[in-house]
Structures are given as C-alpha cells and as structure tokens.
Amino acid sequence: MLVTSSSSPRLPAPSRLIAHERLGLAVFFALLIGLLIVLLPLPLLSLLSRSLEDRDGHFVGLANFHTYFASGALLRAFGHSLLLASLSTVLVLVSAFAAAWALTRTRLPLRGWIRGALLLPILAPSLLPAISLIYLFGEQGVLKAWLGESSIYGPLGIVLGSCFWTFPHALMILLTALSQADARHYEAAEVLRASPWRTFFTVTLPNARYGLVSAGFVVFILVFTDFGVAKVIGGQYAMLATDVYKQVIGQQRFEMGAVVSVLLLLPALLAFLADRWVQGRQAATLTARAVPFSPKTDRRRDLCGAVLLLPVLAFIGAVIGMAIYASLVKYWPYNLSLSLANYQFERLLGDGWSSYINSLQLASLCMLAGTSLVFFNTWLSQRTPQPRSLVLLFQLLSLLPLAVPGMTLGLGYIFFFNHPDNPLNGLYGGMTILVLCTLVHFYSVPHLNLVTAFKQLDSEFEAVGESLRASRLQVLWRVTLPMSLPALLDVALYFFVNAMTTVSAVVFLYGPDSNLAAISVLNLDDAGQTAGAAAMAVSIMATCAVAKVLHGLLGAGLKRRQSAWRGA
Prior knowledge:
Blueprint: H1 14-39, H2 41-51, H3 63-70, H4 73-105, H5 111-118, H6 127-137, H7 155-179, H8 183-191, H9 196-207, H10 209-225, H11 228-233, H12 240-250, H13 254-281, H14 299-328, E1 329-331, E2 335-338, H15 345-348, H16 354-383, H17 388-399, H18 406-417, H19 431-441, H20 444-455, H21 460-467, H22 472-501, H23 517-526, H24 530-566
Antiparallel strand pairs: 1-2
C-alpha cells in the first residue's frame, strides 16, 4: 500500500522550468539587442539622412555629394588619406613584424620588459606623439637640423605620429600569430639544412600571413580615420578626418560634415569586410599534434633581434621622453629649467583639472557599464539557447563598430540624439551620451575577447546544471563568472584606457560641464599652450599606466587563486 503525503512540495516539471527560463533569457537578449540598435544603426541612419538634406533640413538627394565632389576637396583629401594610411601601414607592418620576430624567435634577456615598453604607446592619446614630434623636429625642435629643408608639419609628421600610436595594435596581433608556431616545421627545416633565410620565407612568413593581413587592415583603418595626429601636426595638409572637423566646427555646415563622414565610413567598411573575408579563409596553423616552438640559444640570432628592436625602442623612448620633458620645462626653448607650472591647469584652462576628473569619471563608467553589457550580451549569445535569428543579428551589431570611424559615430550621435523629436535629446552635452558613444565605439574588441574566453569553457557545465535543476543564472554566478574573471579584467582595462585617450568619438559631443582631458589637449594646443597640452597628455598616459599596473597585480593574484582552486 502506497502512502502519500499532502504536505510534500511539488517540484515544477523540468521541461516547464527550462521553457520559462529560455523565454525569459530570449526576451532579455532581445532587449539588449534593441539597446544596441538604438546606439549604433539608428545614429548612422540619421547621419545618412542628414547628408541628403540641405542646411534647412530639406531633402536634396545627392546634391551635397555633387557639391563636395565638384569642389575638388574629395580627391585631394581622399587621396592624401589613402596615401598616408597606406604608407603608415607598410612602415608599421615591417617594424612590428621585426619586433614580434625578435620577441618570439630569440632568447634575449628582459623580453617581458621590452614587450611592455613596446606597448606603451597604446596608453597615450594619439595627440601625444604629434606634440612630442613638434618639440623634436618643429621650428624650434632639438633635432630640427635632422630634417634639413623638410618640415615636420604635414605628411611626414602625420606618418611618424600615426606609426607611433598604431604600432602596438599591430604588434599584439603579430605576437599572437608568431607565437602559434609548430616546432616540428623548424626541426624539419633544420634536418633539410635549409638556410635561416629559406626557413624564414618558407615556414615563418607563411604561418604569419593571416596575422599580417589582419594587422595591415587594422592599421590602415586606424590611420585613415584618425583625427588627432592630423589636426595637431598636419598643418594645411588636407585629410578626410580633419575635413569633417572643419566642416562642422569651423564652418557649421553639418550637412557637408555628414557627407564627408559617409565617405570616411566607406573605405573603413570595405577594409573591415575584406578582413572578415580573409579571416574566414584562415586555416588552423596548430594541430592537436603540434609541438610548441621554443627558440634555441643562438648569439647571432639574438644579436640580430637586438638590432631590430633598438630603432623601435629608441623611437618610442624619444617620443615619450620628449613629451615628459617638454611638460616640465618652464618656457621652451628660452628657459629650460624644470617646473610643474605646466601642470597648474587652472592657469591654462577655465575649468582647471575638471576635464581630467571628467575623463576619470567617463573611463570608470565605461569600464563598469561596458564590461557588464559586453559580458551579459556575450554570455547570452554563447552560453544560453537563443533563436538563431537573434544570435545572427547580435553578431552583426557586435562587429559593426569595428568599421565605424569615431568621428562618423560622434556626428551621427549629434543628428540622432539632438533631434527635437527624439525623447532622448536631453542626453546631448552630458556625461551619459559620452559614455554611450564611447562604449559603442570600443564594443567589438571586448566582445571578441569574451567570445574567445567563453569558447574555452566546456558546454557540459550548463548540461550538468540542467540535470541538477539549476538555472542558467546559478551556473553563471557559480561557474562561468569565476572562470571568466581574467578575460573580464582585460575587458575592463581596455574600456578604461580607450575612454581616457579617445578624441575623435567625443569631439562633437561634450558640453561646457563635460569637457574631457583628451579634448583639453586639443584645445590647449589650438590656444598655443603646447607645453600645457603635453602636460595633460602625460597625465592621461600616467593614469593609464597606473591602471595597467593595477590590472597586472589583480591578474597575478587571480591567477594564483585559480591555480590553487584547480590544484595546479
């Protein structure tokens, strides 16, 4: 005889529990996708619409494009941007590949410190190398004689400044490409008595070709769409990015600024699509039987690596060192005694240190909000069951920011959020719109980082959770989040550093009370306070360096804790 108890709780059926959970997760995912649509495609559509209107907002079709083409400004600015972006890409690829080879194929001492020094430019705003180059090679520069009759103001300065700040981006990609090497290939080349040059051209270079292509596209897009370097040191040399600034700020011709922004978007979009196509054709270079490559001791090769690294280290050290020195000089070049007077921004700026504090606030908010948004979006797309249509739409929205220049996005935000019929128009000129624009502008790289991290986690975690009737949120909190903390730290640092150094994405959006440190660098330089601009740029770089040190300490502590947890 069976005895049942009426007081025992009745558990919900697992199928009903899973169905309700899936519905809730799908609705939450759709809401977050809707937020991304509001923050990216809609501003871009507003920008495109504005380019088809006249000054009074009447539809004129392609008349604005025809006017811009007929002026001859397009061919001049587009040709200059294309030429300098291509030249900078070649120089950066050659130097970055040489540095990556030296770091991965030699046994030079202090390679970790050397790598850290080579990545320092990523912590500085793009305006810093332009200011430093003026002190080095300008009319009163310490090395002016090196240029002879040439001038640093124009193509030469733009190329040198662009190479400085884009170099770390290419280096990180190429370090990853060269690190994924199979030692068996080099052993085979050694057995066949292939010369070092033959081994380089038949083994090293082919294995890194996709990394070279990706690095080339990244550098090209960054230089082609950059505003800061060309604005400070470009002189009268026309570039597309500075043309946008002149049309909007100088002439208040927003419709023509929209035209140039659309044209600025097209080459970047084409380069992005080409990069995606190349990545889709990439084959795996490491198999399950691959043997990790470790360079052998070779004094001649080590000496060659040192020779390759020395010019790059000297250039980076000279640019950063000159910026720091110039920020401490009382009155260049007549009084070279050292002082902190240039850091007394209350004498140089109406708001004193307020712009720096605003940048800290922006960077902190972007770090917290951006890391949370990217984490939940990526988790929902990668670790929860979602409709395929939502996942595909999310993937498109997540990668699209890579192809949108900062100035194009910022101008689109003006037309969208400042429109009188938009209920969100109250955000314009405040800190909120700066956070949203910066977050979207730098969204793609953290997303790709977390996608890689989530793919390394076994899908069995969720399966075991379902068998134990644990919700996805419980698995997220107890398993996924703790194991993803190293990647989250990287994402947080990425958002913080880029929010501190960004210029192009926010140059049209700040208000009287939301001025930023990087914008103050630009304003100080325009006002002739070059030393004060150098001081503010150095302050930004120092802040990012402190954040990087804290990131390293937290990462080391987390690694020790995870090693103990895993029993390593």
